[in-house]
Amino acid sequence: MLLRQKIRFWLMLFLGAALVPAVAYPAWRHLYPVEASGGWGYQVFHENIPRVSALVRDARGALFISQEFDDGQGTILQRSRDGSLKTVLSGLSKPDGLALYRDGVAVSQEGGRLPVLLLGGDQAKPLFTSDSVEGVASDGHYLYAIEDRHHGRLLRFDPQSAELVTLRDDLDEGEAIAACSDGRLFYTEKKHGWVKQWQADGQDILVQDGLNDPGFLLCSDDGLWITEDATHMARVLLLDRAGQLQVVLDHLRSVQSIIAVAPGRYLLAEQGRSRILQLDRLPADS
């Protein structure tokens, strides 16, 4: 009997020691603080926004925020300068994309075959209907959209003719699209972990691969920003104008959109922690 108890004791001790790393590693990934690379700093801009996803700021400086709930529970919030939030649009299904468009804000819905809407004032009108639209972007005239599904499409909507053109099809989980001021058009395929630049001849250019669930793109004066929609260890990346890929923020959770609000200043939605972060380029002597 004594021998059996000793064997049981040592067996339990061994199993306990083996379980510690298995439990500790997920906890470490969950709790590890965000890290900024040299030359950049961050702070919390707004907390406690469940399922925060897309961000956009209008010409008057109002910040619009989407909450990516499904089944008609999704909302668009507007944040005032004092930090208060009000709901300006509800009844949505996974509103994942926001973009300034004409005199309002374009709103996508990823929750099925649903309309892309134009929010202006207190009204929202449908622009076109598509399946599982996630990212939206505008070059000032056209509205671009990408479908987050297998065999998805990259679309272009013309407001004058109301024509919807397929620019690329058979995409695998398209997430993001960015229309740059110089005419370049970038998109991501989450399943493949890459960013491509669209080409009119159909031979799209592979810009960056090896990414961990790329979720959003932004063209800015600093270069092309890429966020990762990974549950743990997500990053905010910058492909600078010299073609070098920089990790600007690391150890994030499910990063969604990033927007520029001033030279060297950005806001980004960290859905996994229900908050918005402010990212700033630090002075050279700091």
Automatic annotation (TrEMBL):
<dbReference type="InterPro" id="IPR011042">
    <property type="entry name" value="6-blade_b-propeller_TolB-like"/>
</dbReference>
<protein>
    <recommendedName>
        <fullName>Strictosidine synthase</fullName>
    </recommendedName>
</protein>
